[in-house]
Structure formats: C-alpha cells, structure tokens
C-alpha cells in the first residue's frame, strides 16, 4: 500500500558483453534503462555517443514475419468464439520455444509465404479480370458475326454499345429519320446491347443523337471471333486460373502448419529488437556501453547478482540530480492489488505522493454495491468473473476487482432486500421470511434511508481524502500546509455539520452554537493563510475565494446521491421485468411460461449489463472527481523496466 522506493543505478559494460547483459536484464524485468537523452551521464559528458546504429535488419525481419503471419492466418485452422477472445495466445513450453528459435529453416518459410501470397494475389486479380470480361460479353452472346468484322464496312459504320431501355424506342424512331438502323442483341440489367448501322455521311448527326440519349459505345478490339467463342475461351481461362488458385491456396494451407513457429519467432525477435534498440540509444564510449536507469530498491540485490555474472560489467548507485523525475511503481497486498486498475486508469501518483489504491478500494467496492443493490445480480457477476478468471490470459486484475465488488453487492442486496428485484415476493413467496430476516431496509419503501446513507458516505470519503493529505504533509514535515490546507477544512466542515445538526435539533443547541463559533477560527485561517505567497491584497483575495469554495464541498457531497439514484433505478427496472414476466404467465397452453422465462432471462441480463456498467463508471467518477483531488495531484511517470513481452505466445513455466 505504498509507492515503491527507487534506486538510480549505472551499469557499465564492455561492448562484447552488453548484448548478453541486456538479455539477462530483460529476462528478469527489474531495471528500467534510460536513453542517451534522458541519462544524466550524457548531460555530464556531452561527447558520449549512442552505442550502436539502428537495428534495421531485425526490424525488416519482424516486418516480414508480421506479413507472413497475417497471410497464413487466413488459411490456418484457428479456434474461434469466446475462447479465442479470452485466450488469444498459444500456450507452449520452453522446449517448444527453444526448438522454434533454433530452427534455421523457418526463415525459408517466410520467403515461401511471400511468393505464395504474391502468386495468390496475381491469380485473384486475373480471375476477377476474367469474370469482368465474361460479364461484359454476356449481353452480346447472341451476336453471331465475328467481332472483328463489325468495323470492316466501307460505305457505312457499325457501332456497338449499350442504350437505356427507356430511350430505346425514341432512339429507334430518331435514327430511322437519319437513315440509320438499330438492332437489339441482348440485355444487361436495364440497358440493351445494340448494334447501330448508318451511312458514313450521316455519322456526325448519328453520333450527336446518340450522345443525347446516353449511348455507351463498346469496342471489341483487339478481340477476334464470335462472342460465343470469346465466352468459351474466357471460361477456359477462368477454369485454369481457379485451378491454379486452388493449388496455391492448398500450398498456403500447408504452410499455415508453420504458423505457430512463425509466431514464436516473431515474439523472439520482438524482444531481441527491444534489447537492440535499448543498446542503440544508450550512451557509450569506444569500448563500453553505459546503462543508466532505475530499479526498485528491494530488487537491487537481484540486479547485483545479474551484473556480477558478467566479469566485464560493473554496477554502482547514483546520486539523484536536483528535480530529477523519478519513475513510479505502486505495490499493494493481494486483496488490494486488483483495485490498482482504478489508480492506473487515472494516472500514476508522483513519487512524493501517496498511493491511493488502499484508500479507494473499500469505497469503490461499497459504492459499486450500492449502485446495484441486488444480491442476485451480484451472484451472477461473481459466476461470470470466476469463468473469465479461469479462461482468460494476461492481467486479471479487473476481473478480480469486479468479483470483489460483486461479493459486496451480494451483502448490500441482502440488506436491502434485492434478489433479482422483487422476484422472491413475486415468484417464491416461501422465501419471504428468510428475506425479511436479512433485510435492513427496503429502498423503495424507505428511500430517505438511502438518501441519508449516500450523503453520509460521500461526506465521510471527502473527510478521508482531506485526512490523507493532512497526515501525508505531516510525514513530509510540511506543517504549514497540513494546518492551513487540510486541518482548517476538517475543523470547519465538521463544525458546520454540527452547527446544522444543532439547528435541526439532532444535537443540543449549546453544542451547535459552540460549533458555529468554532468554525470562525478555521474560516479566518483560510482567509489569511490559504495563499501564502505574494502581496497581502492578493493573498486576501485568494483567501476569500478559497473560503467561498466551501460551497463546492456541498456540491461534492451531493454528487454521491448518484449512489441512491442508480440503486433505485436498478431495483425499479428489475421490478418492472418481474411484473411483465408475471403477466405473461396468464397466457394459456404453456406459452406464457416460455415467454415469462425469456422475459426474465433477457430482461435481467440487460439490467445487469447496463447497470453494472453504470455502477462501474459512476463509482469511478466519484473517485476521480470527488475523492482524488483532495489529496492527489498525479502526473507521475510509470516505471517501465526492460522486460520480455509476448504478443502471440504464452510460455508455460
């Protein structure tokens, strides 16, 4: 429940050992390496150059591997459905990995994939072209005259083309007046394939007429023979192209058996490229490579052991430069760690701040539960999360967090009587006594209980935020900030609440009056010392503004009423679903039972999905907008150690 303490380190390695050292560091994944621009050693010795040139060969190989993998996936038998989404990476052991990496023949497969892909693309283009020619020739299939003879008339001209069906009759009449003839040969959609013959002397007038009716002239050059013969020839070409295409796709399917090996190789060279790039941008001399970076203090001894295995390498600690940006990593216990999802979405705290994860975790779980307030829904989400955790690869923090929140939802739902809405009262009345024993209050019968509970929880979380900031400033020995920026607000806000309670008769009037007078002390302190720089005029002006911002705290507290609103909406929609299902039970012949089941399953599934999403989003908002600003600035740089990353495979330990 804290921010990890970091140590600045420098590793100096001889060029002959630098690559092997980086591989060892990447395998353990505990050290972040800085490039030449970030490293302080480059600023102290500007003459240091980068260690190596850009690894272009590895980049090119990775690019070829990526193209080959994308090509073969079209022909490989890969599992589909939900399993492929949850577990997209192939699970292998280290022996399979090492065999694939050491197999030099795999590189040849890349060239074969490239050749096969190019051939398939060529054949597909050829096939599409032939199909286009056949479609173009189809309307002229009944033309028995060889196409090359259409342009061999001496005193007349023969034009072939397409004419709209609506314009055909009018064009026929107009052409006859010019001494020309038109003959329909076939039809393509809403157009006629036509032959038009006219004397050469009338050619200019005929062309002018044809343009007015949108005549599309067709040329058969350089084709020869009848259209029927041309169609036959092109069908033979199409059959040959499809046979060749099938042979190439079969070849691609055979090559796809090597897909896993290519994926292993891709991940292997991706990690190699990461090391090479790290080495390439690190500051260096003629004989050494200087790796400056960060390691968590608890991992420093592990780093020493790694470096000690390389005789031409040494490790030393570095003093921090003034205002140097320290990367941030957060550490929490196992039951708190899932809630790091919320912190990381917001952005890392700065290295001198406090990790908010442990403080937000109970509030997040409770607020999520109050937004749903249904034990049945909580049980359904728990079952889903168990399934996802078992089947899913990679980081499962989100699933664990939702599972914990759903467990709290079951408790909150039982205390508020929500079991799939009012399903117990509607369909299982025998369980009503058990429900009554567990219930604390029904939000629909006593909404004001929910109203006051939401406000109280909001007010309490805001006080917790101010208290965190107060204690943190005390630990950093920033006593003035602790007193003027947090303690004053803690005293004043609580004094105002007690004063209001006195007016309402909840506490004795004398206590309320005393609290009212007490609130004047922190109010004056805020007015005078909340701004501690600049002239007194500016300080007083800003102090007045800060004092006026007390009204913003009221807005923050009122924001927590969304807990009640979402909880009531969830319960109300669940009740409506149950009412509709119960009405359908009156339909005879068993049809009503089937419809009722469909309504219950579909309706409650929709209600769970939409309101679980709303509960997550609005609970997230309460943390980010109302809670975090009380003690957290954020903007820290994430600690990103050099480590092995896998896109396609998952190596089983």
Topology:
Blueprint lengths: L1 E2 L2 E9 H14 L2 E3 L6 H5 L4 E2 L5 H17 L8 H6 L3 E4 H9 L3 H32 L18 E9 H13 L3 E8 L2 E9 L3 H10 L3 E3 L8 H29 L3 H23 L1 E2 L3 E9 L3 H9 L4 E5 L12 E2 L8 H7 L10 H16 L2 H17 L5 H20 L6 H5 L4 H7 L8 H29 L3 H25 L5 H21 L6 H13 L1 H10 L1 H24 L6 H37 L21 E4 L1
Parallel strand pairs: 5-14
Antiparallel strand pairs: 1-13, 2-11, 2-12, 3-11, 4-10, 6-8, 6-9, 7-8
Helix pairs in contact: 1-10, 3-6, 3-10, 6-9, 13-15, 13-23, 13-24, 14-15, 18-19, 18-22, 18-23, 19-20, 20-21, 23-24
Count the beta strands: 14
Q: What is the CA-CA span between the terminal residues?
A: 29 Å
The total number of structural domains is: 3
- Report the portion of residues in β strands: 5-15%
Percentage of residues in helical conformation: 55-70%
The computed structural class is: alpha+beta
The backbone outline, from C-alpha atoms, is extended
What is the rounded Rg?
A: 39 Å
Which features would summarize this protein structure in a list?
single chain; 653 residues; alpha+beta; Alpha-Beta Plaits; 3 domains; 4-stranded antiparallel β-sheet; 24 helices; 61% helix; extended
Structure overview:
The protein has 653 residues and is α+β, with helices and mostly antiparallel strands. It folds into three domains: 2-51 and 282-329, Alpha-Beta Plaits (2-Layer Sandwich); 145-225, Alpha-Beta Plaits; 337-630, no CATH class. It has helices at residues 15-28, 40-44, 56-72, 81-86, 94-102, 106-137, 165-177, 203-212, 227-255, 259-281, 300-308, 340-346, 357-372, 375-391, 397-416, 423-427, 432-438, 447-475, 479-503, 509-529, 536-548, 550-559, 561-584, 591-627, and strands at residues 2-3, 6-14, 31-33, 49-50, 90-93, 156-164, 181-188, 191-199, 216-218, 283-284, 288-296, 313-317, 330-331, 649-652. The strands form five sheets. The protein has a four-stranded antiparallel sheet with strand order 3-11-2-12, with helices on one face. The protein has a four-stranded antiparallel sheet with strand order 7-8-6-9. It is extended and about 120 Å long. The mean pLDDT is 90.
């Amino acid at each position: 429940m804290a921010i990890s303490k970091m140590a600045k380190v420098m590793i100096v390695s001889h060029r002959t050992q630098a690559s092997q050292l980086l591989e060892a560091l990447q395998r353990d994944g505990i050290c972040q390496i800085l490039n030449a621009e970030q490293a302080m050693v480059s600023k102290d010795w500007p003459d240091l150059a980068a260690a190596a040139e850009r690894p272009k060969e590895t980049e090119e190989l990775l690019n070829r591997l990526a193209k080959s993998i994308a090509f073969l996936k079209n022909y490989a038998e890969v599992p589909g459905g939900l399993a492929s989404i949850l577990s997209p990476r192939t699970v292998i052991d280290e022996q399979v990995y090492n065999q694939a990496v050491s197999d030099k023949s795999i590189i040849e497969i890349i060239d074969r994939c490239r050749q096969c892909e190019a051939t398939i693309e060529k054949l597909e283009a050829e096939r599409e072209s032939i199909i286009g020619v056949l479609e173009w020739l189809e309307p002229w299939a009944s033309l028995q005259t060889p196409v090359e003879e259409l342009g061999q008339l001496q005193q007349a001209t023969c034009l072939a083309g397409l004419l709209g069906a609506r314009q055909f009759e009018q064009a026929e009449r107009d052409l006859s007046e010019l001494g020309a003839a038109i003959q329909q040969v076939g039809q393509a959609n809403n157009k006629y394939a036509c032959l038009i013959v006219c004397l050469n002397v009338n050619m200019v007038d005929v062309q002018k007429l044809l343009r007015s009716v949108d005549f599309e002239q067709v040329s058969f050059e350089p084709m020869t023979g009848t259209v029927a013969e041309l169609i036959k020839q092109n069908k033979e070409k199409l059959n040959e192209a499809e046979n060749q295409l099938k042979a190439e796709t079969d070849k691609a399917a055979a090559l796809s058996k090597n897909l896993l090996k290519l994926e292993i190789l891709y991940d292997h060279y991706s990690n190699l490229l990461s090391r090479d790039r790290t080495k390439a941008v690190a500051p260096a001399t003629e004989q050494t490579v200087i790796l400056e970076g960060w390691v968590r203090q608890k991992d420093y001894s592990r780093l020493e052991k790694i470096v000690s295995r390389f005789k031409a390498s040494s490790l030393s600690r570095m003093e921090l430069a003034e205002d140097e940006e320290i990367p941030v990593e957060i550490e929490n216990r196992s039951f708190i760690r899932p809630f790091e999802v919320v912190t990381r979405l917001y952005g890392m705290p700065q290295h001198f701040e406090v990790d908010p994860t442990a403080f937000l975790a109970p509030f997040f779980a409770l607020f999520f539960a109050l937004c749903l307030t249904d034990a049945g829904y909580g049980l359904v989400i728990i079952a889903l999360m168990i399934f996802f955790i078992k089947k899913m690869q990679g980081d499962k923090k989100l699933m664990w967090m939702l599972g914990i929140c759903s467990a709290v939802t079951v408790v909150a739902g039982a205390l508020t009587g929500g079991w799939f809405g009012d399903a117990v009262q509607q369909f299982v009345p025998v369980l009503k006594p058990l429900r009554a024993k567990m219930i604390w209050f029904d939000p629909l019968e006593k909404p004001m209980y929910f109203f006051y509970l939401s406000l109280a929880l909001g007010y309490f979380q805001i006080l917790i935020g101010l208290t965190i900031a107060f204690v943190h400033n005390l630990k950093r020995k920033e006593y003035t900030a602790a007193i003027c920026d947090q303690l004053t607000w803690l005293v004043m806000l609580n004094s105002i609440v007690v004063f209001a309670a006195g007016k309402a008769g909840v506490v004795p009037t004398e206590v309320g009056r005393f609290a009212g007078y007490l609130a004047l002390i922190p109010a004056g302190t805020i007015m005078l010392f909340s701004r501690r720089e600049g002239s007194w005029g500016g300080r007083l002006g800003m102090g007045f503004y800060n004092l006026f911002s007390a009204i913003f705290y009221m807005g923050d507290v009122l924001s927590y009423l969304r807990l009640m609103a979402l909880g009531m909406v969830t319960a109300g929609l669940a009740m409506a679903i149950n009412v509709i299902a119960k009405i359908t039970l009156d339909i005879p012949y068993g049809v009503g039972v089937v419809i009722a089941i469909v309504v219950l399953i579909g309706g409650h599934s929709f209600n769970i999905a939409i309101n679980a999403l709303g509960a997550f989003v609005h609970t997230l908002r309460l943390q980010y907008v109302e809670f975090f600003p009380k003690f957290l600035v954020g903007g820290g740089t994430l600690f990103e150690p050099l480590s092995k990353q896998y896109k396609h495979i998952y190596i089983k330990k």
